[in-house]
Amino acid sequence: MEPKSDKPRIVPCPSCGGDSVFAPSNRWRPFCSERCREHDLGAWASESFRVQAAPPTEDQDLPH
Ligand SMILES: [Zn+2]
User: Fold this and answer.
1) Domain assignment present for 60
2) Is residue 34 part of a domain?
3) What is the tens place of the pLDDT at every residue in 19-59?
4) Ligand 1 centroid distance, CA of 7 (Å)
5) Strand partners, 9
6) Interval between CA 48 and ligand 1 midpoint (Å)
7) Which of 8, 24, 51, 62 holds its CA 20 to 30 A away from the CA of 33?
8) 13 annotated among ligand-binding-site residues
9) How many domains does the chain have?
10) What CATH code is carried by the domain that includes residue 20?
11) Range of the domain at 14
């Protein structure tokens, strides 16, 4: 076994860039907290919704 496994791995939080414990004890990993996790998912969801809401321009050029 490697000695590194004894210590939790610290990774930068994708949302705030702070220290995040990448271990089973951190249910929000790789995020540092629930707030950061929800913030990131919210941004992703809103962006996805915006893309789906935008009408495909190619279809508008097709003859009806
Ligand atoms: Zn964070």
Assistant:
1) no
2) yes
3) 999 999 999 999 999 999 998 777 767 777 676 666 666 66
4) 20
5) 22
6) 22
7) 51
8) yes
9) 1
10) 3.30.50.10
11) 7-45
State in Å: Cα 23 to ligand 1 middle. Answer: 15
Q: How confident is the model at residue 17 (pLDDT cuts 50, 70, 90)?
A: very high
- Cα–Cα distance measured from residue 18 to residue 11, given in angstroms and rounded to the nearest whole number: 8
61 inside domain: no
Predicted confidence at residue 25, as pLDDT, reads 93
Does residue 30 sit within a domain? yes
Is 36 annotated as belonging to a binding site? yes
Supply the DSSP string of 1-64, one letter for each residue. Answer: --GGGGSPEEEE-TTT--EEEESTT-TTTTSSSHHHHHHHHHHHHHHHHHHHHSPPHHHHHS--
Q: Is the pLDDT of residue 3 over 60?
A: no
